[in-house]
Amino acid sequence: MAQSPGANPAANATAPLPPGSVFEGSLDDTYGAYLLGTFMSLILFGISIHQCYRYCRLYPTDTLYIRSLVGGLMILETLQMTLLMFTCYYYLVSNYFNVAVFNNGVWSLKIIPGFIGLITLTAQTFFARRAWLLGSKYRVVVSIAIFCLFLHVGFAIGVVIVSFQIHSLDKIGPSNRWLFGVALFPASLADVLLAGVIIIALRRSHQSYKQVDTWFDAFILYVVNTGLLTGIFNLIPSILAANNSKNFIWASFSFIAARLYANTLLSVKLLVSRGMEVFGTDPLRRNIIARANHLAAVEQWNTPQIPDSTPAVISIKVTAETEGDLPGSHSLHKVDSDAFARSV
């Protein structure tokens, strides 16, 4: 019985392989790094779920806006984690023996940058609002940061479009490589700007922060609470992608950075339950109504308090009336005292 050509190992070893059937990249630097990034993201996602559970238990009456922000962020996180796991299963399980597929991008791999952009924008909305409440002198910086966030979302959409157009890792070249690195840089810049504003406010606050007793508490307060940690992690994939966007090492770091947004936002809310408020307890020097409204917003957003150098003024006008009989007629005399002010 003649042996079929497909059963002859020697014939298969010398036969030319069809184009695209060989994966020329390193599996460790591509899908291995992608898998490790997914593993780390799952760990951080589990922490986010625990933080979200504690937030729901501790703050059931929080404002609708903040609760919607947390809920929307967790939905986006869940969808992205589903896409990450599906991508790993598609390449490393379903197509384990189909090497040609490794060169092509599955749809879930291509749309993940868009989810990262939405997660970044949603989470940083919270930090932008915190920085906005610090006062008018910081709002120019906050506006620049908000512009950078929308710029990041635009670049993320551009990465998704380019990913659907090239269809293969081999087609990533100088004409489109820059987009992968530049896409993450505006997000990192926004993180650093907002974190800088919060750190300056913490340093200028009249709070002594006696509750910060250890270096770990200081790290949580100044690095995690301010959002500086996400800015640092966003710089890493930006640099790696600009250097070599054909591997997925930069993508694995971007997954971790995206997970840290939810961890950071929820840790800010949970710091209050630990007694580490970053808003002041002393009343602000404003009029009573403005003071109450501002303190309510500051407490909800856990914003550092900047001492107000302009004292509020309560104007009190006293009017005295005297009535008596005077010679020749019955008259009413009214005496107005000067208005006086007392600072509080």
Write the layout of secondary structure elements.
Elements: H1 9-14, H2 28-58, H3 64-94, H4 107-132, H5 139-166, H6 174-182, H7 185-204, H8 215-224, H9 228-243, H10 249-271, H11 288-301, E1 313-316, E2 319-326, E3 329-336, E4 340-343
Antiparallel strand pairs: 1-4, 2-3
Helix pairs in contact: 2-3, 2-10, 3-4, 3-10, 4-5, 4-7, 4-10, 5-6, 5-7, 6-9, 7-9, 9-10
Q: How many helix segments?
A: 11
The percent range for helix content is 55-70%
Strand order across the largest sheet: 1-4
Low-confidence stretches: 1-7, 9-20, 278-296, 312-319, 329-344
- Our measurement of the CA-to-CA distance between the termini, rounded to an integer number of angstroms, reads 106 Å
The biggest sheet, with number of strands, parallel, antiparallel or mixed sense and barrel status, is:
2 strands, antiparallel
Radius of gyration: 30 Å
Query: What portion of the residues fall into strands of 2 or more residues?
Result: 5-15%
Give the beta-strand count.
4
Order of helices and strands: HHHHHHHHHHHEEEE
Query: Which structural class do the helices and strands define?
Result: mainly alpha
Morphology call: globular
The mean pLDDT is: 77
Describe this protein's structure:
- With 344 residues, the chain is mainly alpha-helical.
- The chain contains eleven helices and four strands, in the order αααααααααααββββ.
- A hairpin with a 2-residue loop joins β2 and β3.
- The N terminus and C terminus are likely disordered.
